[in-house]
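# step 3/5: fold
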Amino acid sequence: MDCAKAAATFCLCDGSVTDFLATGRDIPTSHLPIIAIPTTSGTGSEVTSVSVLSDHTRGVKAPMNAPGFYPTFALVDPELTLTAPAHTTACTGFDALCHAIEAYWSRNHQPVCDVLAVHAAKLALDNIVPVFNQLDNSVLRENMAEASLVAGLAFALPKTSSAHACSYPLTNLFGIAHGEACAMTISHFLRFNAENGCERVETLAKALGYNNAHALADRIDEVRRETGMRLDLKDLQLSDEQFEQLVAGCKHPNMQNNPVEVPEAFVRTMFEKMR
């Protein structure tokens, strides 16, 4: 869907999409109409103005945002996700969960988006493990499709933040699936934000039925283990150069959307624990 959204705009202008991906150039406003039909439950791209693309030549994966990327129609049919394998189902589920959580704590949070974020986060967190274990369960697939769609609406205005900022180098450098990459750091940032004065994180945890942000983070880590998500980077045996590239790659604009400033030292320590 993201590729189609970009193609619908850049087919009408001179130059290449690479002229606009991670370059800061204004994206043209003219575009063809788009009908978006998701076949996974995660990105919510069918209802957002975001297109995340990879330039393998430059080793860049980054989001672009433009009003023309909003689809004209979105058709969400959970039956189209029934053939998604277990790992993909879990990865995309975590993407939806991170969209909701990051939208809620975003510096640009909005009251209506807050409501959507809580609804989507609860649906995702309650259903990722069950659907992982029952891939042919149409009710669970519908629940995850709803979580993904509502999470897409939740972050469309506030945008994502720290976990997504860190996901891009994890994918660019090591090929870790996007949702799995987001899941690797979301609990760390939940704890970090809570310990550094972000009351909204505690409010979100309680709204989801947990005593505090640390309890919510613990549950997310449990779900990661139960679905076989990557827990660390030990098997990659990162060189010092690779480690520095990872840390540097997290200096993404999305990081500025975290509710509290994230020092490089925290990012470095977080990944040292995974190394």
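# step 4/5: annotate
The beta strands are 35-36, 50-55, 60-65, 73-74.
# step 5/5: archive (pending)
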